[in-house]
Amino acid sequence: MARGRESRLGPVLYSPGAMECVACKVSDQDVRLHKCPICFKWVCENCAIRSYGRAFCMRKCADQFFWGDDEDE
Ligand SMILES: [Zn+2]
Ligand SMILES: [Zn+2]
Q1: Rounded to the nearest whole angstrom, what is the distance from the C-alpha of residue 42 to the centroid of ligand 2?
Q2: Do 31 and 47 meet the contact criterion of CB atoms below 8 Å apart?
Q3: Model pLDDT, residue 68
C-alpha cells in the first residue's frame, strides 16, 4: 500500500515555515514556538527557558545572552 504517496511530486518537501521544537519536537502546528535569539532554534512554550523577557531554547543560551559575547571557546 502506497496510500498518500505522491510519487509525481518527488521527495517530500517540507513547507516553508514548518518548524518544530528543538527539545520535544512538537510542531508549530500544535503549539506556539519561540525563536531562540542566540542560536535561532525553535522552542515551544513548555521547553523554553524564560529569562530577561525572552524565550531561549536552553539555559546555556539564556546565560550567553546575559553575559554577551562569550569568547571562551
Ligand atoms: Zn518543546
Ligand atoms: Zn538557543
Answers
A1: 8
A2: no
A3: 77
For residue 42, give its domain range: 33-67
Beta bridge partners of 51: 54
Grid coordinates representing 37 are 535569539
CA gap 59, 53 in Å, rounded = 14
Expressed in angstroms and rounded, the spacing between residue 5 Cα and the centre of ligand 1 is 29
Identify whether 40 is part of a domain: yes
pLDDT digits (tens, 9 = 90+) for 11-50: 655 556 679 999 999 999 999 999 999 999 999 999 999 9
**25 falls within a domain:** no
Asked, for residue 10, whether it belongs to a domain, the answer is no
Q: In 3-state terms, what secondary structure has residue 66?
A: helix
8 inside domain = no
Cα of 40 from ligand 2 centre, angstroms: 6
